[in-house]
Amino acid sequence: MCRKNSTEFAADFSYLLMQPNMTDLAILPLADPSPLPARRRAMARWLFVVAGMIFLMTVIGALTRLTESGLSIVEWKPFTGWIPPLSLEAWQSEFAKYQQSPEYRLINQGMSLAQFQHIFWLEFIHRLLGRIIGLAFFVPMVWFLWKRYVPRNLAPQLIVMLLLGGLQGVIGWLMVQSGLDQRPSVSQYRLALHLGTALLIYVYILWTALGLNEQRVRPARAGYRLALAYAAYIFLVMISGAFVAGLDAGLVHNTFPDMSGYFLPPGAWDPALGLLNHFENQTIVQFQHRCLAETAVVLALLLWWRMRKTPRITHDARMVANALAVMALIQLCLGVSTLLLGVPVAIATLHQAGALTLLTLSLLLAHRLRVA
To answer: What is the spatial distance between Cα 308 and Cα 305, in angstroms, rounded to a whole number?
Structure first.
C-alpha cells in the first residue's frame, strides 16, 4: 500500500471540505471524551424514577382518603413500620388500637377484623411506598456523591430534596394525628399542607431531572412564563381540591353546571365564619373549586392557541401544548363525573391523577420552550 505524507492528507481534507454538502463538517463539534454527559443522563433517569414514584404515591394517597383508610393505623413508626402484622395476635393488637380511635367509635362501630384488614392494607401500602421512595432517593444519592458524579451546584439541591422528603413524612403523621383526637376525620388544613408539600417535592425533582436531561438551553422563548404560570395555577386548583376532599364538599350539590338549581345556593355564606367560609364551608369551598377548575380549562385552551400562533416553536413544544389542551378537557369530564356520580372512588382517583398529569404537562411545556 502506498503511504501519504502529512501534506497530502491535509490537501485531501481541504478538498473534502470544499465539496457540496461537506462544509458542515467544519462546524461539527468533536466527541466529548469525558463521561459527564452519561453521568448527567444517569442522574436524570434516577430522578425521573423517583418523580414517577411520587406521582404514584399521590394517587394512592387519594385512593386511601377516598376509601377512608387513612386513619386505620393509629401509630407512627418511621423506622420499624416496615413489617405488617404477621399473626392473628398481631392483627388483634392493631385492631384493638384502632377501636380506641374516634373513627371506630363514631363511624365504624361493630367493624369486623376482616373489614379492618381491608382498610389497614391500603394505608400500610401508602406508608410503605413513602419509605421505599426515601430509600430510592437516599441510596443512589449517596452513591452518586461518592462517585463524584454530582456537580457542585446540584449537591445542595439534592440535600434539600432529602430534607423535604423527611418533612413530608412528619406532615403526613400530623395530618393523621388530627383525626385521632376527637374528630373522626383529618384536618382539611393539614391535608392541603400534606398534598402541597408532596406537589412541591414532585415539581422540584421533575424540573431538576428535566434540566439534567438537556444540556443546552436558550433564553426563555415566547410562552415560557405563561406555561410556568399555568403550572402554578394548577397547583392552586389542586390545593383547593384538597379542601374539597377534607370537608367532603364533593358530596353536596351534586349537579352541574348549577349547584342544586342555583349559580350559588342562597344562604351559602355563613356570617359566623366570615373569611373562614373559604376554608370551612362546604358550599363555598366546592363553588371555589368549580370556578378555579373551569378557568383552568379555559386557560389551557388559550395557552394552546397561543402556542399555535407563536412562530419558532419546536415540534416537541407544540405536541406538549396539544396534550395539555386535551388533558384539560379530559380532566373537566372527570371532575364533572366525580360530582354527578357522588364521588365514586375510581373516577375520583382518576381525577386526582388527571390533575397531576396537567401539572406535569405544564412543566414539560415550559421546559420545552427553553431547550435548544
So the answer is: 5
CA–CA dist 90, 145 (Å, integer): 41
Q: What are 97-148's pLDDT values in tens digits?
A: 999 999 999 888 989 999 999 999 999 999 999 999 999 999 999 999 998 8
Number of domains in the chain: 2
Q: Which residues contact 210 (CB under 8 A, 6 or more apart)?
A: 44, 363, 364, 367
Indicate if 188 and 245 belong to the same structural domain. no
Contacts of residue 19, Cβ cutoff 8 Å, sequence gap at least 6: none
SS (H, E, C) 28-48: CCCCCCCCHHHHHHHHHHHHH
**279 and 251 in one domain?**
yes
Question: Does 9 map to a domain?
Answer: no
What is the pTM assigned to this prediction? 0.87
Q: Cell 430534607 identifies what position? A: 163
Same domain, 288 and 239: yes
Q: Is 79 inside any structural domain?
A: yes
**pLDDT of 226-252, one tens digit each?**
999 999 999 999 999 999 999 999 999
Phi, psi of 256 (to 5 degrees): -155, 140
Alpha carbons 63 and 56: distance in angstroms, whole number: 11
Helices (H), the chain: 6-17, 36-66, 88-98, 102-106, 113-146, 155-177, 188-213, 224-246, 277-280, 282-309, 315-340, 345-368
Containing structural domain, residue 318: 218-267+275-372
